[in-house]
Write a structure and sequence with these properties.
The protein is an all-alpha fold. The protein has one domain. It has five helices and no strands. Helix 2 packs across helix 3, helix 2 packs across helix 5 and helix 4 packs antiparallel against helix 5. The longest helix is centred in the C-terminal third of the chain and has 30 residues. The radius of gyration is 16 Å and the shape is elongated.
């Protein structure tokens, strides 16, 4: 997946301030700031968002663990991006597979 696809995916998740020239790391930086605010002010809303995005609970716990060397907000942002990329890859795979099943004569 290229950065343009990732941009479109995240943009569709309600982050319209993003621009198409951002790399994956810039996207993670941007999201980290949003997540940092949620960690400090509305942890339940953050966990609800993670649940809706279907991010693995064990990975969330690991990201929030005190021994995690990476900033928790950055770890969570990375998990969101990884999950969304996996979701897009799955959709693309099934879209391709469905096309192979169609027999047009």
């Amino acid at each position: 997946m290229d950065d343009e696809d990732l941009f479109e995916l995240i943009k569709s998740q309600g982050l319209p301030e993003l621009n198409q020239d951002q790399s994956e790391e810039e996207l993670i930086d941007f999201m980290s700031q949003r997540i940092e605010a949620l960690l400090a002010g509305d942890f339940e809303a953050l966990m609800s968002m993670m649940y809706r995005l279907d991010v693995d609970e064990a990975k969330i716990r690991k990201a929030l663990a005190p021994h995690n060397p990476e900033n928790p907000a950055r770890s969570l942002a990375r998990l969101i991006v990884q999950r969304q990329m996996k979701r897009m890859a799955t959709r693309e795979k099934y879209k391709r597979d469905a096309g192979e099943w169609i027999d047009i004569e």
